[in-house]
Design goal:
The protein is built from 15 helices and 20 strands. It is of the alpha/beta class. The two termini are 24 Å apart.
Amino acid sequence: MQIQLPYGKGKLPLNVPDKNLLEVVLPKEVIHPEQPSALIRKALDNPMGTDRLSEIAKPGDRVAIVVDDYTRPCPNKELLPPVLEELKTAGVNDSDVIIIVACGTHKPPSSFDMIKDIVGDKVSRNYTVISNDSTNGDFVSVGRSKRGNNLEVLRDYVDADIKILVGDIEYHYFAGYGGTRKSILPGISSNNTIQNNHKLMFEEHACTGVLKDNPVHLEMNEALHFAGCDFAISAVLNSNHRIVDVWAGRPESVLDAGVKLVDEMYKRKVSTKADIIVIAADGYPHDINLYQTIKALHTSMHVLKEKGVVVLVAECKEGHGSQMYVDWMKNHKNSKEVESALKKNFIMGAHKAYYHFKAIENHPVIFVSNMDKNDVENIFKFRYAQNPDEALKKAFELAGKDAKVLVVPNGTTTFLV
């Protein structure tokens, strides 16, 4: 059977012998009969738990709108214009609106073209757009979490009269789900606040698809409530990154609605564990670098037999994505060593080395990527292959010619159980 795997903005073919194929795990594909513009308009006209945005804002208000950065597939260019139209209806001047790119600890976009790609050409030319710089930004403490952590959020957002969050909702491997409160923490928080929050990833319930008792999520929620949010709008996308539904209003209601659809579409039950799993990281932007791709590798661990083999497929056109990640891979020997060090002093980027070591300690990983072969093999301890078919051939050599193969084209966004 030939299967097409997402790879950057294109696809790569994979041929799996029928006798070896367990199944191809795909999301429940939803195509909404209405156009995305109609769904967005309906959500804005019928917000959950609050008034319409055009009724909340008033002339003279300073408005801050937070949008996802380039590592997320959020359709900012579709969501932003109707939100801005609502503000115009309310009498808000364009000059009183600031759009903040929620980079968290990611590298802020460095050029006008990158900003334009995130928010769209017209918006980038007519509105002030800034990006979070978690190290050098102007942050203000909005309170302390129940854990005693100082919650520092970008001043431009905190000081605004009207605060709006724009995003999409999908799975996250230790926050449970992305969306809404994650735009605040880590999106527009300080490096110290993000580190303190992310070190909670080692605790129970900090895992994919879990919000109840999830310490990472709970602290993110505290940051949201302390910093404030007057209006949220979020979308859920199908595997082709097309909007299938949109909700607006109170951030808690928006997240709850989005989570239900994400589970319906992307929570997939596998009948048996596999000898080999071929997993792609959803293509662009999820496979923009190895830092993002590790989420797909983490997903594969749940449905693989002990010592089973992983074939990981991701373009990684920007390489590894984090020098800290590289340094910790070079300077540490195993996951226990990384975990011990991070519990003493959590450092963003280093946590990827923890998940990386957890995978390669238990499973051979064959990597199909544009990354340098020497880096793949010597720094990241993967086995290199030029294409999926070559990788699968190597996997059969390790697992045996009768090995059963599971194929997951959308590994980053699929929750395997």
